[in-house]
Design goal:
Elements: E1 8-12, E2 18-22, H1 29-39, H2 45-66, H3 76-87, H4 90-94
Antiparallel strand pairs: 1-2
Length: 95
């Protein structure tokens, strides 16, 4: 996952999901709009947030990470916890 460190921030959530996000993501107004939509109860904003934050490949990786092998489903609550962990990482805000 090693990318240009000047442009990307890398981290690991408490459950072990490794991610890389562009450092400028916290200053993306479209992402902020989507987060506001999610806060207002629009769960349909979550997939768009994931694409903005992680991109297509990492979104798929996150789903695989959160997959409940017993049911074969990806719990949205688990995905939301992962997103929260990424967005509240204090190192992301320092970048």
């Amino acid at each position: 996952m090693s990318k240009d460190r000047a442009k990307y921030f890398e981290g690991v959530t408490p459950t072990g999901f490794r991610y890389s996000v562009e450092r400028d993501v916290v200053d993306d107004m479209e992402l902020i709009d989507l987060l506001a939509d999610l806060e207002d109860g629009s769960i349909s904003a979550l997939p768009k947030i994931l694409l903005k934050l992680l991109g297509k490949k990492q979104k798929e990786d996150l789903y695989q990470h959160c997959l409940d092998k017993e049911s074969g489903r990806v719990p949205s609550s688990q995905v939301m916890e992962e997103v929260k962990a990424i967005l509240t990482d204090p190192n992301l805000k320092k970048s």
